[in-house]
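Q: Given only this backbone (252 positions), what sequence would you predict?
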């Protein structure tokens, strides 16, 4: 099986993509990403329901209003992500807070949006206890400093980004929306490094949470493996569109 890096090199030979093809792929990935990231947090909307809501504004019968609002808010956060990538901005604390602000807009947690929590919290079902609120700012500063240092030192991107994501979730800096914010941060770094977007699928939820728990204990291999698998799937999906013969040609 080809490594993610090998697949990325194959895809890079097809760049730049035709603008229409690129837009089509982007639209597909963003809807899939929106639905999957929300579903991991318990959102009940299916992929089709998510698409209909975003394209036509039609709500899904029998589904909670909150689920619809989460999808709409997440789409705004995705647009912000695309602006960051377009402008080639390095990840910053401002981005992190803005992501959370967009995700929590008009929800019951809006008054806490974009602000680091001032109370202790627990992560439901997890062994790890997030740091006390007075430590959050320092933890975020260290997180971003380490990520920048790892970049400068040439650490492998996927390992670096997997660790960044896991450590952000470990800090749990906001009252709500930490998982979705963390996955947006993850994809900023992936796309800035030239990779395809990573979509953690709802069916991987248990593996994902287990991998984060392992990371809390200092073992980042499971979350790195899960991230690589997600990136691989996205690259392969792109190749199926822009280079349908890639499997046959590459094998031969």
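A: Predicted residues:
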């Amino acid at each position: 099986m080809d490594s993610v890096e090998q697949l990325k090199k194959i895809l890079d030979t097809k760049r730049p993509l035709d603008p229409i093809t690129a837009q089509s792929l982007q639209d597909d990935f963003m809807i899939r990403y929106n639905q999957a990231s929300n579903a991991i947090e318990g959102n009940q909307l299916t992929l089709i329901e998510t698409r209909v809501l975003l394209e036509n504004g039609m709500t899904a019968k029998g589904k909670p209003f909150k689920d619809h609002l989460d999808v709409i808010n997440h789409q705004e956060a995705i647009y912000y992500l695309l602006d960051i990538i377009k402008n080639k901005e390095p990840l910053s604390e401002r981005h992190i807070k803005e992501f959370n602000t967009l995700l929590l807009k008009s929800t019951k947690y809006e008054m806490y949006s974009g602000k680091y929590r001032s109370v202790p919290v627990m992560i439901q079902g997890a062994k790890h206890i997030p740091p006390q609120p007075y430590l959050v700012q320092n933890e975020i500063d260290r997180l971003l400093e380490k990520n920048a240092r790892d970049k400068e030192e040439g650490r492998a991107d996927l390992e670096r980004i997997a660790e960044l994501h896991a450590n952000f979730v470990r800090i749990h800096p906001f009252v709500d929306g930490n998982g979705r914010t963390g996955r947006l941060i993850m994809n900023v770094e992936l796309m800035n490094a030239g990779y395809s977007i990573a979509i953690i699928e709802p069916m991987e939820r248990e593996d994902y949470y287990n991998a984060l728990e392992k990371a809390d204990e200092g073992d980042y291999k499971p979350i790195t493996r899960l991230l690589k698998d997600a990136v691989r799937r996205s690259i392969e999906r792109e190749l199926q569109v822009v280079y349908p013969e890639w499997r046959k040609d590459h094998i031969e």
